[in-house]
Amino acid sequence: MNERYVRFLDPELHFKAMCTDLVSLKYTKRFCGAGEFECVVPAFASSAPEPDDFAVCGGELYVVEKVSRSSLTGEIAVCGRGALSLLSRRIVPLGFTRRRSVEGEACDLVRTYAASAFPAPIDVDTPEGSGAVGLVVEAGDLYERVVRLVSSVRKGVSLTWDDSSRRFGFAVTGGVDRRLSNADENDVLFLSEGFGTVAGVSEVTDKSKYINRVTVRGSMTSDGTVLATTVDASDYVFPDGTDDSAEALREGYVKSGIGITMFTHDDGEGGRVFDREAYFDALRERGREELALCRVSLSLEASLIGDAAESANVGDLCTLSTPASDVGTVRVTELTYEYKGDRERCVARLLALG
């Protein structure tokens, strides 16, 4: 499967040590979000990592957050999160734009606010805009804001580290189409129990967060009126293609935090005018974003075997064939690699797309 050794780097991303005789290793990669890693280093290791060091395993960069030594065995347990989590160290102020795609706005946020969170320069690959979207960016944790934006359009994020150029790279990605129907363009990833590339497929339908109508609360005007609007899922087409018309009503409520000030402008005659239409557009876009994050989720978990475990990447669109499920197309949203002694395992979380 993937590499079963770890390279440790210091906080400035210079080589510190390599550990090839780990007691155990487990790390997770995610399509949209920071993964995690944990490993146990032998007691006789020549150099132990420290918090705020970095770890490289499976081609991913992780931040070391916790290091502990066993009083019984002397073994050192190390754990942390993907380097994307560094975004959580910065705060985004409230903002509004009508000129960016959702993906473009996420990239602009990283370009504007993330540089000081990383110990080296970061290059941001901004996709072409898809027109005005009336997008509101709420104040708060940069990591949470970026992941929320990108998740709402079913895209992923990629954060890479290049040792030679000593630069980070950030991009919004749609993954790679490796379905059978696209065999002429990319290497196929065919997950089939019959072909021995997948086993133990379990299916989970999650409606715990599902809502199909949301009331979005805005600000209060000077006369005490609270501005609010209601948004229905039936008014939108979401990336998952689910039809909400037959679903029982499930309502939600969200405080948008969108102020009136940024929608109030000079009228050219010394007065101020409130752009009510633009304000309600912003509230409706906030509602659409909330509905997109609260869809019915059909996910699958499976063990990948052989070549599938070696070649699978988060974000891959692939074909699934199993007697237990009639799902044809899935996206790899999470990969977990685990090594202990002679045992090794790769578990994939798959999002059913049809």
Q: What descriptors fit this protein?
A:
Thrombin, subunit H; 354 residues; 25 strands; 3-stranded mixed beta sheet; mainly beta; Phage tail protein beta-alpha-beta fold; Elongation Factor Tu (Ef-tu), domain 3; 13-stranded mixed beta sheet; 4 helices; 4 domains
What is this structure's SSE topology?
Elements: E1 6-9, E2 15-19, E3 24-30, E4 36-41, E5 54-57, E6 60-69, E7 76-82, E8 91-92, E9 95-97, H1 102-113, E10 122-125, E11 135-137, E12 140-141, H2 142-151, E13 156-162, E14 167-173, E15 190-192, E16 198-206, E17 213-220, E18 226-232, E19 251-255, E20 264-266, E21 272-274, H3 276-293, E22 297-304, H4 307-311, E23 317-321, E24 329-340, E25 343-352
Parallel strand pairs: 10-14, 15-23, 17-19
Antiparallel strand pairs: 1-2, 1-5, 3-4, 3-24, 4-7, 5-6, 6-7, 8-12, 9-11, 13-14, 16-22, 17-18, 20-21, 22-25, 23-24, 24-25
Helix pairs in contact: 1-2
DSSP helix count? 4
Give the termini separation: 28 Å
Residue runs with pLDDT of under 50 for 5 or more positions: none
Q: What is the C-level CATH assignment of the largest domain?
A: Alpha Beta
| Oligomer description | single chain
Give helix and strand order, one letter per element, not per position: EEEEEEEEEHEEEHEEEEEEEEEHEHEEE
Report the sheet-strand fraction: 35-45%
Mean pLDDT level:
87
